[in-house]
Design a protein that fits this description.
The chain is mainly alpha-helical. The protein folds into two domains: 1-43; 46-212, Glutaredoxin (3-Layer(aba) Sandwich). 59% of the residues lie in helices and 11% in strands. The chain is built from nine helices and five strands. The protein has helices at residues 3-43, 57-73, 102-116, 121-132, 140-146, 154-157, 160-176, 192-200, 202-212, and strands spanning 46-52, 77-83, 88-90, 95-97, 183-186. The strands form two sheets. Strands 2-1-5 form a three-stranded mixed β-sheet. A two-stranded antiparallel sheet has the order 3-4. The longest helix has 41 residues, at 3-43.
Length: 224
Amino acid sequence: MNKLTVNIILTIVLFFLIWQTFTYHMVLEKKCQNINEQFKLNMKQLHVTLLYESLCPDTRNFMHQLGPVYKEFQDYIDILLVPFGKAQSERNGAIFHCQHGPAECKGNRLQGCVINSTANQAAQVKFVVCQMLAPDYSRIDQCANEAGLLTDVVQCLSSETGTKLQLQAELVTKKYSPSFIPTIVYNGVFDQQLQDHSLRDFRGTVCYLLRQRNLLPSSSTICQ
C-alpha cells in the first residue's frame, strides 16, 4: 500500500469521525432543547394533586367542579389523580380496607388501572369525572369510550400491577395525611385555607394561584 493510498484512507476515516461527532452533538443538543422546553412548560403550570375515593360522596360533589375547570385550564394545570383516600393496606397490599367498603377498594383499583393506561391527563380527568358522576358508578366502558381509552384493564385489576398502583397511591396519600376527602394539594404543599376555598370555588382558587405565581401570560383573559 503506497503513501497516497494510506493518506486517502486516513482522510476518509477522519472525515467519518468528524461527521459522527457532529451528528452526535446535534442529537444531544436537540434532546437538551426538548428537555429544557418541557422543564419550562412544567414550570409554567400549576401542579394539582387530587386525593380522592371512588365511592366518596364529597369527592363526587367535587367532580362537578373538576370537569369544567380542568377543561378550561388544562394548558395551565398539571394534575395527579390519586384514588385511595382513607383506605389502608395490610401485608404489602394483600388486603385493602376502604372507608366505604370492598366496592370502593375495587373502584379505587379500577380507576388506578385506567389512569395508568394513559399519560393523557385530559383523558384521565374525563374518565374519572364521567365514572364518578354515573348514577350507579358503573358506566366504565361508556366513560372509557368517551375519554378515548381502552377498557381492557382486567389483567391490571387481577394482577400485581393493580396492587402496586394502589400501594403507590397509598404512599402519595400518606405523604399529606388527609383528614378530609377529597384533598386538593397545590405544588406539593397542603394548605388548609386553599383546601377550603377549593371545595367551595375550585376555579376561583386556580385563578388566584395562577395570578399569584405569574403563570398566566399578560395577554390572557381566562380569569377575567
